[in-house]
């Protein structure tokens, strides 16, 4: 279960993204400072060539925002993203389009991610012709090729999206991204909306394509079992921060961050004989408008202590390629409350 | 896990439930001859792929389907067939005896009424509580479901609650009348695992405290494994298999159940291809002859294509509608 | 005659400014005569005058002064006496050149003096129109004291205030006025005149005017018995209402004439040559009109062919005038003679949305088309039409006129004489007519005046500055039990003798 | 609702008014024809017209006129009507209540007709009842207002004599009685618009999960309709109603003419035809104020009905 | 290229075509009737709509004049038929420009947002605080009565609805994943807007267009009633109804038949509108 050791293809440093919260008119009128949603807060992350990096975390923790910042759907507030030697956040015009060709995104919703008025063939051809991927004469052939690549028959080109099932639409979405022959695929909740049986079909497709086309994949999901199955490495996010990054094995078998531990514990096991009586974690996610000071997880953390409230823990390598942002693992060590592995 | 009370008369008996939905493209036979029983205090999981008829089944139990949808069969609750009960009497069962909660708490709660109002209307209807007494009771109920400072929260509107709190509020509303049976349609699908965990545990605790029956519709086998006593697997509008939860995971007796379990990630090795069930669910307007699962089934033989195999007892407390129930392997060790 | 009761009368629009001197419109004028009395009054046929507040008048031998004797015991509607001073003040106000549009009617008065109950008017020159002028609304006698007591810093402000609650000596007095909605006039208990039965006038307790702009609604309301009278019945519905046994559809004779006013100047405003500058063309157009057909079409048979530029109800109308018989052949010949063998293009302004204008002009389009005149109809709204008319920026337009005074001088001064309005803005000017008119304005002999007017009318007809069309009556529908109401040819609505019979 | 929010919205109206003032001022002066010669008619001589123009200050440069107009407006003086010779403010004061009464009355009738019928149509959707309701209102939508007005007048007024023909009456009761037909005319039009949207939003709400939840709670049908369905369905309707108040006031122009109602609609048309600048300016400004206030009220009511909207 | 994956069958070999509902067909049929009457009035009548016949004034319907004659002896049937041309023109011209302008502007400001949106929003506020009819009357008064000026007036006011509708829809569509995908695919903003957003955002405007067409005809009728609409002798239904109102008691046919024509047009537009709403709704 080892990740291919390769240089970072995408290097994210200190990425921060806030959104102005929808604010009441009155408070704006009164000149109260606008509240902001801290969607990403000082995120550091490397994506290595050829690897599958899983990103997990509770809803609203910033997974999609991160993905969108990487493809420049959102403009980040601070930080840098380097793609090879390109400064991604500074790209414009043709250079940005060139970057987007290399780094593609596939979307979650099988229903809204395809233009309902364009046939599958039109969708794919448009991508080909805008980027001049193929001379017009060869485009039809390429469309069929792409369709067969994702396991759809060539006739599919003439159909409209609504004639396909959810799983098939996700295949079309993948084909659309592949039309640009990208290096990196960012899959945001690619299979979350699908039934397990169909999910498995799409996952298999992704695995095979990655193998065949040498793709780097950023796999955003909240299904831990799936992330575990697919990823070489996993990043765990909480309230806009990366709290732990490590090779998959380490994250699932020896999670260090209390949040990672809680998350794993909360995921229902498939074994009816392994039932826990008490909830793995209590309390709700704090509002992203009001992120707790210091360590964002401290309000739900069973191990929180004074320092967690005042000082923000930074992501630190604790060996074995495992990085964690928790005061429990940074000197000076507290009263001895060590992490408990499940 | 509390065992179902055996011997006593079942809380709910469903016989030959059949639902037909007229649609522009033809009649949709959404539920076809579903039979099951539920004991007091028992948690029954209803699983299956999307479109298999789980929600339609659940809604039929309370006769919630609007006019052109036709429901046949019997839903016996305390000896009365809910499907033929006069509307007025039915209302005394709905909500009062049998509560129901839905998947999407955002859409299932009325956005223009406060949570308090929505609890209290149930209290007024079924418990005759009004005024202060109703307020008190409503706060108690919110408290019971683990919502902090329940008294002030009563005046909040659903949109002021977080997703998990909404789901708790919905449970509180359903529990207001202290039902004997709770129908839950994917109550945690929209939630994060951490909150899902809390909600499921809440349901189990309430089941224990109130000795309530619970039918839990879900398509997450993990939820089933963690929550249910018994499982009914649905496919193409029919029950394919019913069994105790351990039985099902250890010895599925239907090719479909087996396929579902085996298609889960984590069952095989890291980054190895999964084992999906090929194809997609059947079109309920044009059902194939014989076993509806046969076209996708790797075990299917000519025997599957004749008449549709009935749901038969194949082992103690274990029914299956699979011709090849005895040829199926046990599932591999399930991890995680 | 039955006494008492309220008559409800439907008007198409409300009055604007109930001041006898400063008003501008018929909407005021036609009502004012109920509220204010004049020294003399027009007779009901609109052709001569009768005594009013003055029981008698005498004109001096040199015709340069007039003495009027006030009727004894006359009072304003508030019970105060009408004095000679009120009369002088009122007439001075009415003839003040700074006041309103009508002061010209009393232009001949040089000064006014009073003695007891007589009023003496010293004149600048003999004025045959003066008796009629004194019977005209603007010469109404107003209560000087009450007017001066009205709030306001100056006369203009006082006039505005007073016009809101006018007190005069007419048969009625305004008691309530909700602008745009209704107006109620109550019987003036001090009114001097007696009816034909020798009893005090008016018979009615009150008259209520309801403002109902929509013709249909007015008629419906009348039919439903909510009104006892309604004015301006569309001519198209006269026949229908005539056959309604519950109603009395009356066509009061009027001085209203309908014509086409032409620009007689050789060039139009935009510099283009104007064929209508040629008298032959104008005559041809006159001959090419089938007036009988128009009367059927536009007035539904209620109209009457015009024989002169003035209506046959105007005093000194010349009954020997022939007008223009329908003669397309002659019209063609005249056009050919004028050099328009191949036809000619003309444009007429019409009031947009006016069904009458549309009917009239489209009919003319057809009739003229037969003699080679191509008529283009340009639709503009009334305000634009007036503005362009005043600026002489037109070639033809539909026109209409009603006399306000029982004398031919008013219409003649407007239509035939260059004067202040350029002969109805036609640009027409005939030196002989100018001379004849000047003469007529000082000629007190009715016979001689008649002869002068005959010449004027004949010369006018020959020059054809306008196209005569037809005269129309005032169509008023009354409930069967309404008696004694008249609208005189000048348009005044007289409720003084009206009564509601059982 | 916070008072300061309302205040803020009211303050926002001010710049809007300035724009409206400029627009209207320019617009009315672009209309060919001038008030004085229109008023004095064809016969008036040039001197008389010139004198009247001077009296009214219409001989001054337009920019000066505008300055004076704004200055007077700031003192709450809209000037005097050129035609009617009375202060515009007084005219509006007399007539606006009539139009407002009519508008509100029409809105009430429209809603009273639309809501139950829309619900009926929605509940019985795709049956003949639904078809009938929709058909009748469709008919109302495709006929001109004045035609409907005249038909109602002829039938219910003249023929059957149930209602007076035109007028306004003096007491509240009389207003209700006199304005019934005009309000019905306008209300029918409004109802036609409302029924369409309300029907579809009721249908939408009927399929909402919270309605199923309410049924699953065992609540009686009437309660579900009134408490759960209607309130939600009305949310969008309120906005639509607000947007249509402007249309109602506009429709009053015609209705008031047909029914001889002394409201501002008729006044405005007369003023436009008579080029009565001060009246046009005063009225359009008043309309702008009213419509703005209606929009504000709509927003406030909307916020009341829909707690998800937060203003403060 | 081959694949080892099990190729799932594409469902429903014959794509399920949603047939237009009968109501849409009826609407289209009615419209067809109207359009042929507008283009080839000669097909339906030989009589001129403007010729007077003094001999046949106010004749009730009979063989020679199936809809009777009006107060000028004109044939009502012929006027109704020729009126089709005018009224369809009114329906089209009162809506087409507002539609085009409003939709384009709406998609642009909805797409660009920020100041452009705010600016147009202020202008729209200014327009909507005037009651529609009032503003149109005022503008027509400025420009002079007649159809062309009515079109100008309606266009000056009518674009706001389309702007609103389209702007809102574009803003909603902008958030849809296919639009975001288009951006990630490196498509130019113009392409995203015109090829992807607009076709999906324009449906409500098209549906509204149909309602608006009948409203346009009615507006024409109202202006006609006030004398500001189509000018005589142009045969226009609204003006015909208005002109006929004086004869309602004696010659009902003058206003009834054009009234019927108005209704037919209104019903046709509305049926088409409902049908289009159904047909254009993207299928999911
Ligand atoms: N366009 C936006 N405008 C305002 N706030 C946003 C926007 N997009 C995301 N957010 C906020 O940023 C935070 C992070 O959102 P994000 O969508 O990245 O979460 P996520 O981890 O992808 O969650 P999920 O699992 O639900 O998809 C959330 O609080 C969200 O509400
Ligand atoms: N009101 C309805 N009208 C038409 N078809 C319906 C309706 N309700 C359900 N169906 C159809 O009936 C079938 C069964 O639906 P049901 O909602 O019971 O599935 P489910 O098992 O609950 O699926 P999911 O997991 O997606 O909730 C589906 O094909 C669905 O499309
Ligand atoms: Mg996300
Ligand atoms: Mg379901």
Automatic annotation (TrEMBL), chain A:
Q: Which PANTHER family match?
A: D,D-DIPEPTIDE TRANSPORT ATP-BINDING PROTEIN DDPF-RELATED, TRANSPORT ATP-BINDING PROTEIN
User: According to its UniProt record, what is one Pfam family this protein matches?
Assistant: oligo_HPY
InterPro entries per the record? AAA+_ATPase, ABC_transp_ATP-bind, ABC_transporter-like_ATP-bd, ABC_transporter-like_CS, Oligopep_ABC_C, P-loop_NTPase
Q: Name one GO biological process term.
A: transmembrane transport
Protein family? Belongs to the ABC transporter superfamily.
MF-aspect GO terms: ATP binding; ATP hydrolysis activity
- The organism sits in which domain of life? Bacteria
Checking SMART domains in the record gives:
AAA
List the source organism: Deinococcus sonorensis KR-87
Q: Which UniProt keywords apply?
A: ATP-binding, Nucleotide-binding, Plasmid, Transport
Q: What is the protein's name according to its record?
A: Oligopeptide/dipeptide ABC transporter ATP-binding protein
Q: ABC transporter domain: which residues?
A: 10-264
Automatic annotation (TrEMBL), chain B:
Tell me if Membrane is a UniProt keyword of this record.
yes
Any one Gene Ontology MF annotation carried by this entry is: ATP binding
Its placement in the membrane is given as: Peripheral membrane protein
Arranged from A to Z, the UniProt key words for this protein are: ATP-binding, Cell membrane, Membrane, Nucleotide-binding, Transport
Main localisation: membrane
InterPro entries hit by this protein? AAA+_ATPase, ABC_Ni/Peptide_Import, ABC_transporter-like_ATP-bd, ABC_transporter-like_CS, Oligopep_ABC_C, P-loop_NTPase
Where is the protein localized?
Answer: Cell membrane
> Which CDD domains does the annotation name?
ABC_NikE_OppD_transporters
Q: Which domain of life is it from?
A: Bacteria
Q: List the Pfam families hit by this protein, alphabetically.
A: ABC_tran, oligo_HPY
ABC transporter domain residues are 14-261
State the NCBIfam families in the record: oligo_HPY
Family recorded in the similarity comment: Belongs to the ABC transporter superfamily.
* Name of the protein: ABC transporter ATP-binding protein
UniProtKB/TrEMBL annotation, chain D:
Q: Where are the transmembrane segments?
A: 12-31, 98-123, 135-156, 176-195, 233-259, 279-301
Q: Which residues form the ABC transmembrane type-1 domain?
A: 96-302
Q: Which SUPFAM superfamilies match?
A: MetI-like
Q: Name one GO biological process term.
A: transmembrane transport
**How is it placed in the membrane, per its record?**
Multi-pass membrane protein
Q: Has the keyword Transport been applied to this entry?
A: yes
Q: Name one GO cellular component term.
A: plasma membrane
The keyword Transmembrane helix is assigned to this record: yes
Question: Where does this polypeptide localize?
Answer: Cell membrane
List keywords of the entry alphabetically.
Cell membrane, Membrane, Plasmid, Transmembrane, Transmembrane helix, Transport
Superkingdom assignment: Bacteria
Which family, according to UniProt? Belongs to the binding-protein-dependent transport system permease family.
Q: Spell out the protein name for this chain.
A: ABC transporter permease
What is the protein's species of origin?
A: Deinococcus sonorensis KR-87
Automatic annotation (TrEMBL), chain E:
Occurrences of domain ABC transmembrane type-1 (ranges): 84-273
UniProt xrefs under PROSITE patterns: ABC_TM1 (PS50928)
Annotated keywords = Cell membrane, Membrane, Plasmid, Transmembrane, Transmembrane helix, Transport
The record's annotation in CDD domains points to:
TM_PBP2
Q: Can you list the GO cellular component terms from the UniProt entry?
A: plasma membrane
| Chief place where the protein resides | membrane
* Cell location: Cell membrane
- Organism domain of life: Bacteria
Q: Name one Pfam family in it.
A: BPD_transp_1
- What are the TM regions of this chain, as residue ranges? 24-44, 90-111, 123-143, 149-165, 205-230, 250-273
Asked whether the UniProt record includes RNA-binding among its keywords, one would answer no
Membrane-protein topology? Multi-pass membrane protein
Keyword Glycosyltransferase set for record:
no
Family (UniProt) = Belongs to the binding-protein-dependent transport system permease family.
What name does this protein carry? ABC transporter permease
- Protein species of origin: Deinococcus sonorensis KR-87
